Amino acid sequence: MRSFPVGRYVIFCLPLADGIDIVRVLHGARDIERIFSQNG
What we know:
Blueprint: E1 2-6, E2 9-16, E3 19-27, H1 32-39
Antiparallel strand pairs: 1-2, 2-3
């Protein structure tokens, strides 16, 4: 999974052979590690 900031948000995506799959868009102030560990 890759991530990159866009303004106040962080975009999480998976690269595909023909593009990307957007997995999640989160506000940068969120506890991102906690959110992903809950969904693990």
